[in-house]
Every structure is written in structure tokens, then in C-alpha cells.
């Protein structure tokens, strides 16, 4: 396994060179090969997912500190989706996928709220049909009011594997962009779009999502909602 790259101060916007990026991605791929060893996911798929997951947000990111860590985490989620799609046994917790257009507002809030309330009893994902460059700052602020930090999150693109791995797919204004597969539960939440709105206008959207998330959790895992 390649040696991990040198650490950097958290406050520094570390922008790695191409050689350093290659080392970072090799290290991430080696770590994920250990997790998905035994042919669960082939090496070519692991390298492709790791590279794709890093380079897409890196192309537009304003701050690169922690980007590799975040990309590795998301790559792990994507590879778990691939494994589940291939029939590999996975934990029994229900999996919920929130989808909006940009994955910068509504779906980010919904995922963070469900993750918070479920306390590990639900696997939560979010994605966008046309991901934005960054999460909406007003969304980050109103979620921070609840003690939920979205400052290190980034918009992620919707993949077929993510939809196929989910038990429940909840769309929020993305129309027909989300593929439909048999055996999935689909819900469409009609919510105001926080894009371009200030904090005062985003709070009611957050609170509406929170009520819906709590009701969803009570339906999926009743004991977790008590």
C-alpha cells in the first residue's frame, strides 16, 4: 500500500500538484481495495470511481483542504452501491437516496437531517441530476443553527448504482432525471427551492424537510423515531 501523503494544516488551502494527486488517489484506492477485497469490486472499477469522485469536485472547488478525504468517503459510498447492485450481502439497514437538481440545498438538508435523527439505523445518500459547484451558503448556515455542519460537504452526481442500491428514492424537483427501477419506493416531495434565497427564507424550507424526514423515519424504523 502506498504511504499516505504528508499532512497539512487544517486552515491551509492545500492545492496538491498532479504528482501529489496521483499519490493521494493511489493511497485512497489501496485503502478501498482492502475494504472491497476478495473480488467484491474489481480494481479497475475502484480506480475509476476514486479518480472520478475526486476530479469532478476538484475542477471547481474553491478550497481543496480535506477534498481527498471527502472524495474517498464518497467513493466508498459509490463502491458500496456497486457491490449491493452486484448482489453482495450488505447490512440490513434501509437505504434512502435524496435527489434534487443541484444537490446543493434540499437534498443536502434532507440527508443531514435523516442521518442525524436515524443515529445509524438508516443509510443515507444524496445526489443531484446536475450538481452545482458548492453547497448553498444559506443552507450551510441554517443547518449550522441546528448543530449540523455541511461546510465540508460537496454536491455529488446522481448515478444509476445509487438508485439501484436504494430502498427509498425521494426526489425534489428533478423531474424525470431519476431512473426508475422496479421494487423501489419512490416519493416526490414538493418543496420550495432555496437557490437564491436568504437565510430567513431558507429556514422554513429546512423545517418543512425536517418534519417530512421525521415522518419518513417513523415509517422506516419506528423505534428510531421515538
CATH topology of the largest domain: Rossmann fold
**Biggest sheet features:** 4 strands, parallel
Instruction: Give the name of the CATH architecture of the largest domain.
Output: 3-Layer(aba) Sandwich
How much of the sequence lies in strands comes to: 5-15%
Number of domains: 2
Please give the number of β-strands: 4
- Termini separation comes to 44 Å
Q: Largest sheet, order of strands side by side?
A: 2-1-3-4
* Name of the CATH superfamily of the largest domain: Response regulator
Secondary structural class: alpha/beta
Keywords: Arsenical resistance
GO biological process, one term: response to arsenic-containing substance
Protein name: Arsenate reductase ArsC
Pfam families: LMWPc, Phosphatase-like_N
